[in-house]
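Protocol step 4 of 6.
Sequence for Amino acid ABC transporter substrate-binding protein (Vibrio nereis) entered exactly as in the expression construct, tag removed. Do not edit the line below.
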Amino acid sequence: MKKLLCIAALGLTVSTTAMADQILNDIKNSGELKVCFDSGYMPFEMTAKNGQYIGFDIDLGKQMARAMGVKFVPVNTSWDGIIPTLLTGKCHMIMAGMTITPMRNTQVNFSDPYVVIGQSILVNPKHKGKISSYRDLNNSDYVVATKLGTTGEQASKRYLPKAKQNLYETQSEAVLEVANGKVDALVYDFPYNSIYTAENQGQLIHLSEPFTYEPLGWAVPQGNHDTINFLNNYLRQIKGDGTYERIYDKWFNDDKWLKQVN
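Step 5 output, structure tokens:
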């Protein structure tokens, strides 16, 4: 009888191990949590003057790795290739301020939203008094900039179909074009626009009321349900014990970190 019980217990252990998904298994076996992001998206992920990666997502990722007892490994990659990078196994998950969209959800599985943002607008001061909302920009007389492959591009095309669209590889290029007066406005994520305005006071006008609803989530390859379960429970835990609030306040309610950024 004892033998049968032992065999049954062993079978249960083997079965449970076999059922664990690939991502969690690889993290545990390798002792590393490899996280993909595109550095330059304030305040989520940035490159500090010392070459280290810093930001809201970076701190959340480091905290997650500590909770799992593994090493945090940052994987900086271009935004337009970030999902292929994940799907080819170069990282375990995307933690990069990625908006949960139906199209992306056909390629990856998302955790529950860990923060909600929206698109806002930076306007060249020459349009002061003429442009007070996104509706005013929906005119063939205006040129609107945004970053290629982002929800800013989707929002521009959806809500400003009459305006000319200029797409850029980085948000830094796009906002510089607005500041130089070569384009009229930038449509991009509220956190970036808000921080840029604070850092460059008086340079551009921020229409700070977001005109889209965008929940951000962490992404893993499809089929890794145990990893999604872990991410959702991890998020619930850090929101309940104050860890999330502490990290959020550091990056969204304080600007001391701006001195660290290139």
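Step 6, annotate. The chain has two domains: 22-116+215-260, 119-212.
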